[in-house]
Amino acid sequence: MDKNWVEFAKTREGYEFFLDKVMANLPRTFGKIGDRVLVVNPIILHESRRTIITNFTHIASTLNREPEHLARFIFKESGKAGTLESERLLIQGKITNEELRKLLELYVKEFVKCPVCGGLDTKIVAEKRFRFLLCEVCGAKSPVRKI
Ligand SMILES: [Zn+2]
What we know:
The chain is α+β, with helices and mostly antiparallel strands and 147 residues long.
């Protein structure tokens, strides 16, 4: 490693920079869906005024949810605006990797994971004005808020 990088890493800013990089590369495992393990590994780019998740639609499909739904959740919970553009989610302003990981965890907890059995093989169904999380594992039907 270059000496300048080593010096940089010793500063607080540098420490956070590398910590952010390391955290970004840690896939988050949520549990198993059938035989497959649910792993979400967002690829995040930070620009000066925006945050880009380059594999956003892939994350949504891993969670078996519509990208628009996950995007609305992130905008609402972070209080930030943004747009879905092809595979990518563009967020205005900065969201750190750690914040994004927390948002994804909250999303899974509220909109993917069955509160009864903890199963991840679920879907969201609409009935009249209401939304339910329907579990394919235990059959439970739990109300979820509309976003
Ligand atoms: Zn269940």
